[in-house]
Amino acid sequence: MALFMNLLPETGPMIRRVKFTQVWEDIVTEIKKLGYAPETKGVVFDVEEEEKETVVGYHSEKSVVPFGFISKEPGSVLRIVKNIRICSDCHSAIKLVSKVFKRKKVVRDRRRFHHFEDGFCSCNDYWLSIEAEMVELLLALP
């Protein structure tokens, strides 16, 4: 939340948190109409499924999406830079956001640029197959 607090000094922290949370919840409601369901296979913590959905629901790239909707002009490209790879759930969610809301997004993760537009990603979902293999290997560890 510190990033948002510095970028929007005219409102109080609680108002910002509620606004961003509400915008993200509205976005999720819309992308669920196209079949989005939180993908929790990559969460290796020993917690309940609902808790896993909460964990993936607040990844940094998802937190930036409502910020972009609120602060940037409609039609402008939202650019996100990460120092780790994008997870499959965020990848799927951002693809659907680009389709539903007709907003281009560019995510630079540790390995590549992902250009999301009209429900497609420039990586052709290559990363999803690699992540699935890594998850299988992690789950097979004793």
Automatic annotation (TrEMBL):
What highest taxon heads this organism's lineage?
Answer: Eukaryota
Q: Where is the DYW domain?
A: 35-127
Which GO MF term does the entry hold, naming one?
A: zinc ion binding
The family database entries (InterPro entries) matched by this protein are listed as: DYW_dom
State what protein this is by name.
DYW domain-containing protein
Species, as recorded:
Papaver somniferum (Opium poppy)
